[in-house]
Amino acid sequence: RIMCSTLSDALTWKPVSESDQDTTEVLLTELPADGTAATGILELACATRVIASIDHYYHAELLSRAAQRRQLSQGVVIEVDIGGHRTGVRPGMDAQRLASAVIQLPGLQLAGLSADLTALENLPAEQRPQAEQNALSVLRHTRMLIQRSGAACELVSVLTGRQDSEALRNSVVN
Question: For the chain, where are the E strands, in sequence order?
């Protein structure tokens, strides 16, 4: 899986081999701002598997309409705000309500959750481990709420600014 922050970054990605194109998922973190962006995401989805981020019902509606026009199923992750307050739906019930709405929209498939932990990098070093664990706890709780409501929520994607984030990513699922 590769992560691209913008649609233009994702469009410039070229698979190394045919098997890369068949097995690689592109997680697009840029939210679709309008119908043109949603259509661009679906055009990319014709070439490779794309999972788009959303944090509002508006984004889900845009992608649903574009997916219906193309007769495709578009995977989405719900971006959860775990403290950065830049993007993301509030964790807990707000994320669960959005997930419930997403699974009702034609052409969309809920893949999971995403969260941006890079804002935690601004904390003093001694406070980061606890802040990360708190954020992961919020994500686990949100995931549990979504799953209890009957929606699949398999993928949890965490963006960090650290090179040693493998243990952090692994702890989300456990």
Answer: 2-4, 25-28, 49-54, 74-80, 108-116, 155-159
